[in-house]
């Protein structure tokens, strides 16, 4: 079910959608739903990242279970930006020699 806002006029929670407008059944008030802002992903230098970009790792990264770290300067192609499940790692990618991995935007720069 949709998560619709309460009526701004009477605070009724039973608001329903009728096309592009929202209607309150108690007071009859009609209003527009506010669009959620889209998240902007930025690299360590403040450049905006988008899906499909190529990034460069800016520092050596230790990887659990791997015998060697991901070296500074490693180029990662075709990244996918995701809403972080853990609140931190927001880049999904495949790193040559390591496989599928999640990275932070704060440790990469646009390449």
Explain how this protein is built.
The strands form four sheets. This protein has a three-stranded antiparallel β-sheet with strand order 1-2-3, with no helix packed on it. It has a three-stranded antiparallel β-sheet with strand order 7-6-11, with no helix packed on it. Strands 8-9-10 form a three-stranded antiparallel β-sheet, with no helix packed on it. 0% of the residues lie in helices and 30% in strands. It has 111 residues and is mainly beta. Strand 4 and strand 5 form a beta hairpin. It has no helices and eleven strands. The chain is elongated. The chain has two domains: 36 residues, N-terminal domain of TfIIb (Single Sheet), CATH 2.20.25; 70 residues, SH3 type barrels.
Order of helices and strands: EEEEEEEEEEE
| Major sheet details | 3 strands, antiparallel
The share of residues in extended strands comes to 25-35%
Structural class: mainly beta
Q: What's the overall average pLDDT, rounded?
A: 89
CATH architecture level-2 label of the largest domain? Roll
Amino-to-carboxy terminus distance: 41 Å
Described by the principal axes of the CA atoms, the overall outline is elongated
Family: Belongs to the YjdM family.
Protein name: Alkylphosphonate utilization protein
Pfam families: YjdM, Zn_Ribbon_YjdM
Organism: Pseudodesulfovibrio cashew
């Amino acid at each position: 079910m949709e998560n619709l806002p309460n009526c701004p006029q009477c605070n009724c929670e039973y608001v329903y959608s009728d096309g592009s407008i929202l209607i309150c059944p108690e007071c009859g008030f009609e209003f527009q739903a506010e669009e959620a802002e889209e998240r902007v992903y930025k690299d360590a230098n403040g450049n905006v990242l988008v899906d499909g970009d190529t990034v460069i790792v800016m520092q050596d990264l230790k990887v659990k279970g791997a015998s060697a770290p991901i070296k500074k300067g490693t180029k990662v192609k075709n990244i996918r930006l995701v809403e972080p499940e853990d609140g931190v790692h927001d880049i999904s990618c495949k790193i040559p020699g390591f496989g599928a991995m999640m990275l932070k935007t704060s440790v990469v720069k646009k390449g």
